[in-house]
Amino acid sequence: MQPSDATLTTSILVALASELLAANGYRVVRDLTDLAHSADRGLLAEDEFSVVSVVTFETWQQLENEWLETQADLVELLARRLSRAAPKAWDGYLVLLCAGSAPNSQAVSAIERDTTRVRKIVATGEMLRTSADVARVLDLLLPLNLPNGITMLEDVLDSLPEVMKSTADPDAVRVVVDAFRSMEPPLERLHSLRGEQ
Amino acid sequence: MRIKSVTVEGFRAFGRSATIDLDADIIILQGPNGVGKTSLLDALLWALAGRISRFRDRGSPVSIYAREGIARVELTFSHADRGDIAVVRASDGSATSIRLKIENQELEGAAAQQELCNLLLPHLRDRNESLHTLENVLTRGVYLQQDLVRQFIEVDTEVERFALISEVIGAGVVLELQQALEKSRNQWLRSTSAFRKEEIEPLRGRIAQIDEQLARLTDSGEGVEVAAGGPSAANLFHRAVSLMGQGRVGSDEPPTTPGRLDRFLKSLTTERSRIEREIGIVAGMSEQIRSLEPDARDYAADLARLELEESNIATELKNADESLKNEVARLEQQRERLVAERDKVKRLAALARLALDDLGDHCPVCGQTHDREHTVRHLRELISSASDGGTVSAPDEQLSALNARRSAVQQRLEGVRLQRRSLEDDRRERDAQRSVLVVRLTDMGIDTGHDIAAQLQARRTEAEASLRAVTNLLAEGEQLSLNIVRLGEGKRREELMAERADLVSRLEHASAKAESQDRTHAEAGKIIDGLRNASLLVTRRQIEQIAPLFQRIYSRIDPHPTFRTTQIIADMERGKGHLLVGIADPDAGSQQYDAGPVLSSSQLNSYAVSLFLAMNLALPAPALGVTVLDDPLQSLDSINLLGLVDVLRRFRAHRQIIVSTHEERLMGLLQRKLRPVRQGERMISIAFEDWSRDGPAFREKRTEYVGSDEKVLAA
Lengths: 197, 715
Fold this sequence. Notes:
The complex is a heterodimer of chains A (197) and B (715).
Chain A: H1 10-23, E1 27-30, E2 42-46, E3 51-57, H2 60-81, E4 92-98, H3 105-112, E5 119-123, H4 131-138, H5 156-163, H6 170-181, H7 186-193
Helix pairs in contact in A: 1-4, 5-6, 6-7
Chain B: E1 2-9, E2 18-21, E3 26-30, H1 37-49, E4 71-79, E5 83-91, E6 96-102, E7 105-108, H2 109-120, H3 130-142, E8 143-144, H4 151-155, H5 158-168, H6 172-216, H7 220-229, H8 233-244, H9 246-249, H10 258-288, H11 299-357, H12 372-387, H13 397-443, H14 452-557, E9 565-573, E10 576-584, H15 595-598, H16 601-618, E11 626-630, H17 638-651, E12 656-661, H18 664-673, E13 682-692, E14 695-704
Parallel strand pairs in B: 3-12, 3-13, 8-11, 11-12
Antiparallel strand pairs in B: 1-2, 1-4, 4-5, 5-6, 6-7, 9-10, 13-14
């Protein structure tokens, strides 16, 4: 069976979400019997901040009809396993992934803007065509990792050999930069680099 | 580094001193408007940057309730390697001072400020613009001020945005490097030109001179051969001495130098001239000695004959003079008689005129009658004869003949006298010549008593022999001189060739050096060309690092259901960088829209906060790992607010967060969402409850990680 490039199936959506959350510090549980309405089509994940329930639906109709029950499942689970004073009791996320498309964005927005009980995140078929789309939807639940190297801002002068490599020899640029830093005559050093007389 | 505490006194809303513990991962400030939250955050900015740019030059940070009129902020922050560092900044409203306490030493003034900049922006270490850059970094990337939330996207132009990023990342140093390199390159070029002028050109000039000299020198080989077979100086010298005597040679040693040889040849030339003159004199003498022979002419007889002739002619002249005198006397008498006759005629003419005037038929005197016509005719004849002027005697032929005869005698006398004097002169001159000739012969050693001609001929023969010998010597000497000259030229040629070879070697070395310097000059030019765009490229690269972060944070806050894609694009146009920020609808293509007209005010705030947080992470503030947000939650709807709080919750992994809000209901949300979740994490909540002239009244609450967080899923 070939994977479809049109939409992702619910099973793929769950698998991708599970893999992504687990890879980012979440403890992930599938087929949790406590979730009566979503155990067989979703997962439960927890990290130090929050509890996340990911539930998948085949169609928008199914989602629209059942999301309240899945929310209730999550709320009951939190109430059952956490005290009222526990911060995490107020830090639940319900991620609703639908393989089918939504009739309009207002329908999606209406669910997301209901901030009672837990925060809802909704994504439908037109937004879920690749695994990267799933990652994008779940991104706000993931650590904010910085791109490689961004925390190590280098001195601009250090970057010049690489930046200018199409116009000047990186070694020559490096020598000139080093001379500039140490207030040495740059052309003398450049001259010496080539072993010039 | 992260902030540990701040003590504020006399600064804006803080009249009296207040020390606030900020040693936590999360610091939440909450309180109604106007109780000092922003003043506290401004105090952090002022302590670090020395000014709050949003106030520009309006007023001073000194609280109007500061009892001594002095604002003072002491900010303590921790440094991983250098321990706790305290920066103290104070101002009396006109002058600001700074002190930095670091590793048991205290710095003041500019040194303290520079060290602070170095600590906070190590990538701009000791750069001139670091203070200004620090202020920009703090304002645009660390401290999100309410008034400036949207400045970057709404007020700043594309060029200003790019310039800001460029300055913040320190790209200005590229321009400094470029200028320094250009200056060095120009000096390098002048130095190379001077080297060519002072080293290479003289070498080329000298080689040209040598080539010209070599072209004028004969081939050395020929000269050497001649020199080998030619006469020696010693031989010539000895022969000359034996011929001329050392006195005439003028030297007591052989001519071993060109100068001496020249003098030797000149003495030979002089000797030759002397001998030639002697030969000429001897020849002349030989001609003259004929005058010493007895005279063929009898001067005495000739003189006696001429004297007799002169005497006769003188007598003849005397007679002629006498005849002439007599004739002159006779002519004088004749002339007196003629004069008397002419006077008589004139008197008769006068009487005739008178008679004619009064002539009648009778004589007036005697009364006699007369023939009137006859009388008139007679009177008129008398008048007429008078008017003829009298009779002029014709030249006297006798006198003329006497004069001519006398002149002829006189000429003959002078001719004879001239002959006599000439003869006497001839005789005297001949006598004188004889005397001189005798003297000269005597001087030459000629015995005039013997055969002079024979002696002179012997002398001439001897002189001609000497002349030939001297001429030979001179020719040999000249040959020797030529040999010496050619030898010298050969030696000179060799010297010039050696010098030329040395010069060519030096020229090649110097030319190689100059060409080497030219290559370095050209390479520096390529680097300068590269540097012209490098600052733009570096900035663009940095901006490109912001873009994905901006998109992620914006997506997490999720302010707009359609315009979900952020765009931050660096572009370069006509040598200037442009930074475009916008949004796009990913479902409708990549067309960019200016966020301002598309988003609502709340959405635009979310967009601006997202960009600020992205810049906070992507721009160079690693040394100060702090993010300060002054009431960023205002006017956000609930979804955006939750999204922002979720972002901040994940932000804590990278930054110490100080966030303020005026909404009391959000305090609980922030405390719960940003609570410590790991060992060692700490959160401080500061509730600003009231404000008086002494400053804010606040309560601090510290929350530590307790380690027993309840879990939904069992381990």
